[in-house]
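ESCALATION

Customer reports they have been waiting on this structure for their group meeting. Please prioritize. Original submission:
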Amino acid sequence: MKLRALFTALAVAVAAPAAGDETCQSPYMPKLVGQEDYIYVWTLGIEGVGDGSDKLVTVGANPARDDYGKVVASASVGGRHEAHHGGLSDDRRHLWLGGLDTSAIFIFDVASDPGRPKLVKTIDDFPEATGGVVGPHGFYALPGRMLISALSNAEDWGGRTALVEYSNAGEFIRTIWMPKDAPYGYDARVNANLNRLLTSSFTGHANYMRKLPELMGDAEAMKNFGNEVVVWDYHARKPLQTLEIPGAPLEIRWALGPRNDYAFIEAALTGELWGVFRKDDGTFEAEKVADIGPRDQQPLLAVDISISSDDRFLFVDTFMDGKVRVFDIQNPRRPKVIYERKIGAQVNMVSQSWDGKRIYFTSSLLANWDGVGGNDEQFLRAFTWDGKKLTPTFDLDFREAGLGRPHLMRFGQEGFWAKSRPASSGALASRE
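Update from on-call: job pushed to the front of the queue and completed.
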C-alpha cells in the first residue's frame, strides 16, 4: 500500500488519545506556577527494550540542577498495559496512571520524595468494580475524588462507556454511563465558574487495540468512532446538550480567564479546530473555527492541544507530519497560525508550564500505530517559548535509554508540599 493511502487509513481508523499539561489541570487542584523540577513521563514498554514493562520515568527539568535533561528515576509497574493517560489528585500528592488495554490503574506517591515517585496502590478490578467499564483514559481531580473518563465496556468491547468516580483513597464511588445519543467517551473537563462539564468522543477497545492492517480491512469497525461532545450540569452530573463535532473530537481545553466561557477541541480525523461557545441563553453551540494545517495535506491526525494560561496561544500537535502549530486565539472564533515547527518524525503530546515559557513534547501515540511513517523514534524534547518561536533546550532518546515509548507528562517540584498544603481528605498514605 502506498504511504499516503496508509496515512489516510490510519486517520480514519485511529485518533489515539492524548493528554494534557499544567494549563489543563483541574480547577480544584493547586497549580505549579514556578519552575518545575521534574517531568513525570508515563511510558509504554517495548518488548526487548530495557525491562519491556510500562513505567513512570522521572526526568530533571530545572536547568539550575545537575539532573537537568537526565533520567532521575524509573519505576516499572510490571508488564505492558498500554500505558496512556493519568492525572494528579486534587492535593497533587498522588499521580493516577491507567492502562488502556488491561484497565489496570497505578497510583504513585509523588509528594514524599518528588524525585523518586513510589507506587502505593494498584487497582486491578476496574471493570468488575465499575459494572463493566473498560479502558480508563482521563484522570481529572475533583474535591476528594478522581473523575475517570473511560473508552469502552466489557460487554462488547465497543465504544459505549462511562464516567467513573473513585475516592482519593482508591475506593470506587459510582459509575455514570454516557447518554444513549452520545455513548462514546474520551476527555472530561470542568468549568467551575459555569458549573459545566464537557466530555468528548473516541472509540472502543475493539478498535484502539487492533493492529492497523486488521482495522483497515474492517469496514464496519471503521464506522465506530464518536462525533459528539456532551455538555453536562457538573454538580448534578446530568447531560444537558449533545453537540455534533464530526471526526472524533478529542482534547477539551476551556479558556482560563474567569470571564471567558468557551473551549477549544480538535477533531482528529478531519484536521479541524472547533470552539464550543456559550450563548446568551446559557446553552452552548459548536463552531468550526480553523483548519489545522493545509487541507491538501490532510489527514495530519491532530492528537493534542495545549492552551496558554493567558488565553493567547493554542499549541496543536499533528502526528503524521510531526509538527506543532501555534494559533493566536485572542479572537477565539478566528484563530490564526502564527508559528509552526517540526518536532520529529512523529509527535503526540504537548505540555507547557503555567508561565508558558517551557514547552515539552513526547512521541508515542499507541504501541500499534507508532512508526507508521517508517521512523519510530521515541523522545522527550524540551523547548523554551518566547511568544514568537520555540528554542530547543534538551532532547532525551527514550529508545536509546532503554525506557520505551514516552506518552503522558506531568510536572513535579521539590518542596511544593511544604508550603502549607494539607493532604486532601481520604488521601492514600504512603506505604513503607
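Sent to customer with the following note: Residues 3-418 form a domain with the Methylamine Dehydrogenase; Chain H fold (CATH 2.130.10.10).
Escalation resolved.
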